[in-house]
C-alpha cells in the first residue's frame, strides 16, 4: 500500500523555517514564521494563562470527556468576546475545534455537506492553508482581487467587481481583521459595501478571525465580524485563540454557525457536533478551559486584556519605526503603508527574486510573496532590515 504514496508539496513556511535553522550566519533574521515573538525572540506565556493554569491544576478533578462540541461555557464566552450582542445567542450554533485551522476545516466540511456545488471565494492572496484544505476536499475555489501590489493597499474596486460574480449559495471567505498575509484591511464603509453585495447575490460569508486584539483593539477588531453577522441571513465564523491568548500548542478554536432564523439553531448545533464526531470526536479542552476561566473572571480578563494591548502597541511601534527608518533612508514615504497595515503581517509587494536576494545577501527570511512577520523584528533588527530593503532595491 505505502508504495503508492506520492510526495506532497512542501509547506513553504515550514521549508523556510528549516532553511533559517540551517543558516550559520549569526545576523540572520526570521520574518517568516507566523508566530508572535517579543523583543527577545520568545513567544511568551501570558500572565493570565499562567495564573489560570495554576488554578486549574489545583481545582480540576477529572480529565473525562466534556462533549462533542466542547464545554458550552467556552462557546458562550467566545461568542460574547467576538459577537457581543450583535446576534442573539439562540441564533448561534458553536463547537470547539483543534485551533483555528480545525474551525476552518470543519466549516469547509459543513459547506460541502450543505451545498456540494458551492464555490468558495478566497482573497488573492489568502492564508495558504485556506486553499490547501479546499483543494484537498475537492471544493471549487474562486478568487477575488484583494491586494494591490502598487499601493500595498486593498484593491477594493476589483474586489467588489469579483464578488458580484458569486452565485446564490456560494461562500465568500473573509478575514475578520489583520488580513493574512497582507496586513491590509477594509474600512467600515467598505465592509458595508461587501455586505450589500452578499445580500444582493445570496452568497454566504465565512469569516476567519484569528487575530482579534492584534490590530486596533479587541472591540475594534471584532466590529466587522459583528456587522456582517448582524446583517446577513446566515454566516460561518472560524475563530482562533492561538494568537491573542498565546496558546498556539493547545490548539484552541471555535466554529460558529449563525442564522437569523432561530429555528435553525438546533440543527446547526447538532451538525457541528456530528462533524466533530466524524473527525476527532471530542475537541481539546485544556486551552478552551483556560480561555473560559480568563474571560469569566474580571481580574484575569483585565490582566489578559492589558497584556494583549501591550503586544498590539508593540507591533504598531515596530511598524512605525520601520516605516520611519525607510523614509529616512529613501527620502520617500512609499513605505508608509507599513504603518497603516495591521496585525503581525505586511506584504512588501515585491518580487520573489528580490525576496531571495534579501535571504542570500542579508540573511533575511520571509515568504516568497514578500509577506513578513512584523513581530519578528526588534529595535536592533529594524535598521538592518531597512538597509537591506534599500540595498536590494525593493
What does this molecule look like?
This protein has 394 residues and is an alpha/beta fold. The protein folds into two domains: 11-45 and 303-392, Aspartate Aminotransferase, domain 1 (Alpha-Beta Complex), CATH 3.90.1150; 65-296, Type I PLP-dependent aspartate aminotransferase-like (Major domain) (Aspartate Aminotransferase, domain 2, 3-Layer(aba) Sandwich). The protein is 46% helix and 14% strand. It is built from 14 helices and 13 strands. Helix 2 packs antiparallel against helix 11. The longest helix has 33 residues, at 298-330. The radius of gyration is 21 Å and the shape is globular. The chain starts with 11 loop residues before the first helix and ends with a helix. The model has no long low-confidence stretch (mean pLDDT 96).
CATH architectural label of the largest domain: 3-Layer(aba) Sandwich
Low-confidence stretches: none
- Lateral strand order in the biggest sheet: 2-10-9-8-7-3-4
CATH topology of the largest domain: Aspartate Aminotransferase, domain 2
Rounded to an integer in angstroms, the radius of gyration calculated over CA atoms is 21 Å
